[in-house]
Design brief:
The chain has a single domain, classed as Decaprenyl diphosphate synthase-like (Undecaprenyl pyrophosphate synthetase). A six-stranded parallel sheet has the order 3-4-2-1-5-6, sandwiched between helices. The radius of gyration is 19 Å and the shape is globular. It is an alpha/beta fold. Helix 1 packs across helix 2 and helix 2 runs parallel beside helix 3. The structure holds 3-methylbut-3-enyl trihydrogen diphosphate (2 copies) and magnesium ion. One 3-methylbut-3-enyl trihydrogen diphosphate binds next to strand 2. The site of one 3-methylbut-3-enyl trihydrogen diphosphate has 11 residues, from helix 1.
């Protein structure tokens, strides 16, 4: 496989990990088996990201809307989360990975919440890569919470509404500590955002693949980054402004 440009690795990669259910159905298995295999893919992709030098990896593990799934499936997903965190703590420490999470974790069952907070605490000094789990996360409620917080500050007279700009707004989001994603990947052929990082993906490069999440691996990640490296990120400017050509403009 062709080499990646080491100077152009996306700083922040965000992934909508979709297709576990269909992966299982194709094999006449229970959806939960798909989630179990999905967890193996998470382990591989976290390590591959670390090796590639990605600084921030955000994984959409459970959306606010996913609470509407059958009780047994929600239960199984939560228990897999606990299992994943317990099994990966040593590896996270060895590889200098810092775990953080965004979302409303008050909804997460007690045991899993405990192991999550414990993992966050034990890895908080790590500097190699930030692994950000979006758990019980929804982009709209994140934006609404930020809006309410800003409205309160204005009401108390601590802030003028004219002072609210993009930077201040971003600082009130759950992602205030991390940069916006450069690359957003969604697996399983769906081409939608499903309430993920609505504000933050404003200028992310989007990459969709038909590969189902349990089949996603280092090679697939490599392919996505290769594609990212072939894109020209213009941020509203012209191509010539971003990468001036040798030819003089007439
Ligand atoms: C993604 O796989 C995992 C979660 C949303 C938690 P799905 O469970 O959505 O798989 P499909 O979309 O039904 O195939
Ligand atoms: C998005 O996948 C949420 C996660 C990957 C956690 P879904 O499978 O829930 O999305 P929709 O419902 O098909 O849009
Ligand atoms: Mg799905």
């Amino acid at each position: 496989m062709e080499e990646l440009d080491k100077d152009n690795i996306p700083r922040h990669v965000a992934i909508i990990m979709d297709g576990n259910g269909r992966w299982a159905r194709k094999r006449l298995m229970n959806r939960i088996n798909g989630h179990r295999r999905g967890m193996e893919a998470v382990k591989n992709v976290v390590m591959a990201s670390r090796e590639l030098g990605i600084k921030y990896l955000t994984l959409y593990a459970f959306s606010t809307e996913n609470w509407r799934r059958p009780k047994e499936e929600v239960r199984a997903l939560m228990s897999l989360l606990g299992k994943y965190l317990r099994s990966e703590l040593t590896l996270m420490i060895e590889n200098n990975i810092k775990l953080i999470s965004i979302g409303n974790i008050d909804n997460i069952p007690k045991d899993e919440k405990e192991v999550l907070l414990n993992t966050i605490e034990k890895t908080k000094e790590n500097k190699g890569m930030v692994l950000n789990l979006a758990l019980s996360y929804g982009g709209r409620s994140e934006i609404l919470d930020a809006t309410r917080a800003l409205a309160d500050e204005v009401k108390k007279g601590e802030l003028e509404s004219s002072e609210i700009d993009a930077e201040l707004f971003s600082s009130h989001l759950l992602t205030s500590e991390i940069p916006d994603p450069d690359l957003l990947i969604r697996t399983s052929g769906e081409m939608r955002i499903s309430n993920f990082l609505l504000w933050q993906v404003a200028y992310a490069e989007l990459y969709f693949t038909d590969t189902l999440w349990p089949d996603f691996n280092k090679e697939e990640l490599f392919k996505a980054i290769k594609e990212y490296q072939s894109r020209e990120r213009r941020f509203g400017k012209t191509g010539d402004q971003v990468s001036p050509s040798e030819v003089d403009v007439l």
